[in-house]
Design a protein that fits this description.
The chain is α+β, with helices and mostly antiparallel strands. The protein has two domains: about 70 residues, no CATH class; about 130 residues, Gcn5-related N-acetyltransferase (GNAT) (Aminopeptidase), CATH 3.40.630.30. It is about 25% helix and about 35% strand. The chain has six helices and 16 strands. It is globular, with a radius of gyration of 18 Å.
Length: about 240
């Protein structure tokens, strides 16, 4: 894959990682395909890669490349067609009083403390529950593309932070963390709806949600956002279409 910028051609290469324990499906091994060099992946290239099923973690752009498993399915919401269901509409009403602020990437200790609480409550033992500020920064604050941190506050109290990348054709929901122990909260649902509305305001076509994994409760929820498109043999199709 090549990209021309100011008459210079940057060539993107891909390599496969060694197998490692899968984060989503127990007792399975995973591999990733990583695009390099990272410094050559600008917004244009990154948008193309996301359209091919890649995601970003810090400076690393990757997609699943497992030997005997295709459980990870890239999905996106076509925002012009999306309508919230009743449960999602309730979440919108419940959290409609949240104030938002879009920020550039930068370390804020209040964000980091919320991230730590979220990881320990929702992903304890998952590898990130003991992240220190440097590890947090490598994951959340390193980017070579247009990225934002969005704060969501309730009466001045921080409730949620979302890391979002802007693409040529949409928004990529990179990562979201929120207050984990508030009863009757539906912050994650509200966040997706908020990103859909932001994409509409920006006249963008899609919100990319990463990977849907039917066998993983943490990832299977994404099919609730209908109509949803999946990447199937290089083409984006609606769920249910053949």
């Amino acid at each position: 894959m090549s990209h021309r910028d100011n008459d210079a051609v940057a060539v993107i290469h891909f390599y496969a990682t060694a197998p490692y324990p899968c984060s989503y499906l127990a007792q399975r091994q995973a591999r990733s395909q990583v695009a390099v060099p990272a410094e050559a992946i600008d917004g244009t290239v990154y948008s193309q890669l996301v359209g091919l099923g890649f995601r970003r973690s810090g400076h690393f752009t990757y997609r699943p490349y497992c030997d005997e498993c295709q459980a990870c399915v890239p999905v996106r919401i076509p925002v012009a067609e999306f309508k919230p269901d009743r449960s999602q509409a309730r979440a919108a009403r419940r959290h409609g009083g949240l104030s938002t602020r879009i920020l550039p990437l930068g370390f804020v200790d209040e964000h980091f403390q919320l991230y730590r609480r979220y990881q320990r409550a929702r992903h304890d033992g998952g590898g990130m529950s003991d992240d220190d500020p440097q590890q947090y920064a490598e994951f959340i604050l390193k980017s070579r593309v247009e990225s934002w941190l969005v704060e969501f506050r309730e009466e001045g109290v921080l409730r949620m932070v979302s890391l979002i990348d802007r693409l040529a054709d949409g928004l990529s929901a990179v990562y979201t963390f929120f207050e984990p122990d508030l009863p009757r909260s539906a912050f994650g649902v509200y966040n997706v709806l908020w990103q859909v509305n932001l994409a509409r305001q920006l006249q963008l076509d899609h919100v990319y949600l990463g990977y849907w994994i039917a066998e993983s409760p943490k990832m299977a929820y994404k099919t609730r956002y209908q109509p949803l498109q999946r990447l199937d043999n290089g083409r984006w199709r609606r769920f249910g279409d053949t």
